[in-house]
Design goal:
5 strands; alpha+beta; 5-stranded antiparallel beta sheet
């Protein structure tokens, strides 16, 4: 197993849960407890640590740096009322790299990001090479014919990491899968256990 795989497994073991965006399953199968601890030990959390953990979950799954996450938080709070986390979830789930991942066209968020960056992704039949591009309701998303021969794409199509969410549909057109954004996703579409309240509390006293 490659060194990067070990690092991804270590992160997931630390949180005691799998983050689909990191790719391969099985992080908790052999050692379902944090690195450096035995299975009999239990960690104690402060209130701050619990809030911080919810923030880190979002960062790790969507593979975001802190400044990238804060940029999306600022966009979510702009013109928003109290429930800005719902809007944030909608923006993160509609990032182009995430859409490619959720359509089952890449085995991980990093693989999806690479497809976008290399110009293999089309939005409404036009190439878009910005992973953070936020697609809109009604947009059509597909990949190039060349990308269909990519081994990562073949692996993902054969064995998708997640089921297709209800805000997307997918059908084959001329031998290529095409996804359509049917609705704006929300917190309920985040594909792992997430406490929006703790996340909100973490940023309550901080300027994003």
């Amino acid at each position: 197993m490659k060194k990067k795989s070990f690092a991804r497994f270590k992160v997931q073991r630390r949180f005691g849960m799998e983050f689909p965006g990191l790719g391969k399953k099985g992080a908790l199968e052999r050692r379902p407890y944090p690195p450096g601890e035995s299975g009999s030990k239990r960690r104690k959390y402060s209130d701050f640590a619990l809030r911080l953990e919810e923030k880190q979950k979002i960062r790790f799954h969507y593979v975001l740096r802190e400044h990238q996450l804060r940029r999306f938080i600022r966009a979510s709070k702009k013109g928003s009322t109290s429930n800005w986390v719902e809007k944030l979830a909608g923006l993160l789930e509609r990032r182009l790299d995430n859409i490619i991942f959720r359509l089952g066209l890449a085995p991980s968020m990093l693989s999806a990001r690479q497809l976008v960056s290399h110009g293999h992704v089309l939005v409404n039949d036009k190439k878009v090479n910005i992973p953070s591009y936020v697609v809109q309701k009604g947009d059509n998303i597909s990949i190039t014919q060349k990308a269909m021969l990519n081994q990562n794409v073949i692996q993902a199509v054969t064995s998708p990491r997640l089921d297709l969410p209800d805000f997307l549909t997918k059908e084959d057109k001329q031998g290529r899968p095409v996804g359509v954004v049917q609705d704006i996703p929300g917190v309920g579409h985040i594909p792992f256990t997430f406490d929006a309240g703790l996340f909100t509390e973490y940023y309550a006293a901080r300027k994003a």
